[in-house]
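User: Please fill in residues for this 341-position structure.
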């Protein structure tokens, strides 16, 4: 026995006493429908439990109603916060988010799987691999979050946090406290190239020595702990390590633990700053000095930019949209230790 048929648009029209076209106008938020008519249609939809057939609608409109998000950093905390902002912005457009996450080496296959569903456009979080998007076959409009302009082989619409400006502000903050230089723990998280340029640029502007960065093999607190032990070793060997800028708050968390285990007081002997302004940063002891934009706002801005591209196909890519990174000073940074003669 075949399963019972679900309600269709004609059933809603019959119950509400209106035409099929009026139901369609209500569903598509078309202007010109009387409030009392819209109320009857929506009451009928609720009573019947009607749901739109998105596949059938796509056949008629040739629009899937899908927006893809492609990422090679699915485990990064900022990725979830970007997705929250995207969902918030997409709600008003009637489109649905379609997610595809993969390890960096799986980017081409994940992208092709995503494109098989014919999304109208995509948002990509693929740090350091933006150039591979040029290899996609007939891609839809794409907005890249925190793109590194140096890796793109074709024009890309981009949106992100001003990582360069944020890292520069953090480095200047540490230099202004009196530190002779600032060490850097870099990583492969979104925006890392820009943060490294901001750190290096601030040191060069101040005429300060540019130390060799510590680059752990991974991201996260464990990687920060390993980098912190390495920096403590460099300090013990005579290198002037009094201030450290971590590329991410999670790296900074590991640094704090490593310095504590090495008998180094923060900020009395070593100052530590992070990047990301995670909610936990203010609750560390000492509270972490950090800087960041709001990843949810970045997600909203990415969707807004993508919808503008969809509304004006063929338009030249706009200039990169950068949201400011706000500096938040905590107790983890202070003046360098006093040298006794």
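Assistant: Residues filled in for all 341 positions:
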């Amino acid at each position: 026995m075949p399963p019972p048929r679900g309600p269709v648009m004609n059933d809603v029209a019959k119950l509400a006493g209106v035409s099929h076209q009026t139901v369609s106008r209500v569903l598509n938020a078309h202007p010109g429908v009387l409030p009392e008519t819209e109320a009857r249609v929506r009451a009928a939809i609720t009573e019947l439990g009607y749901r739109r057939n998105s596949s059938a609608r796509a056949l008629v409109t040739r629009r899937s109603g899908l927006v893809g998000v492609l990422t090679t950093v699915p485990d990064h905390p900022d990725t979830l916060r970007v997705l929250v902002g995207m969902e918030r912005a997409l709600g008003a457009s009637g489109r649905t988010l379609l997610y595809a996450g993969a390890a960096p080496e799986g980017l081409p296959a994940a992208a092709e799987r995503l494109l098989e569903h014919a999304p109208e456009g995509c948002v990509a979080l693929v740090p350091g691999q933006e150039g591979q998007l040029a290899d996609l076959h007939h891609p839809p409009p794409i907005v890249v979050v925190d793109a590194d302009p140096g890796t793109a082989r074709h024009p890309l619409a981009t949106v992100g946090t001003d990582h360069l400006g944020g890292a520069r502000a953090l480095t200047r903050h540490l230099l202004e406290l009196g530190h002779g230089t600032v060490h850097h723990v870099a990583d492969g998280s979104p925006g890392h190239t820009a943060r490294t340029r901001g750190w290096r640029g601030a040191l060069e502007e101040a005429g300060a020595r540019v130390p060799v960065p510590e680059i752990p093999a991974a991201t996260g607190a464990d990687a920060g702990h390993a980098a912190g032990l390495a920096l403590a070793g460099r300090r013990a060997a005579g290198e002037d390590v009094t201030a450290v800028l971590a590329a991410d708050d999670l790296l900074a968390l590991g640094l704090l633990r490593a310095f504590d285990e090495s008998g180094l007081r923060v900020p009395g002997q070593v100052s530590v700053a992070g990047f990301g302004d995670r909610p936990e940063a203010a609750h560390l002891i000492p509270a972490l000095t950090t800087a960041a934009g709001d990843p949810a706002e970045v997600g909203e801005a990415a969707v807004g930019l993508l919808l503008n591209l969809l509304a004006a196909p063929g338009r030249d890519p706009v200039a990169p949209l950068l949201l400011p990174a706000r500096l938040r000073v905590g107790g983890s940074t202070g003046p360098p230790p006093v040298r006794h003669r």
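For context: The chain has a mean pLDDT of 85.
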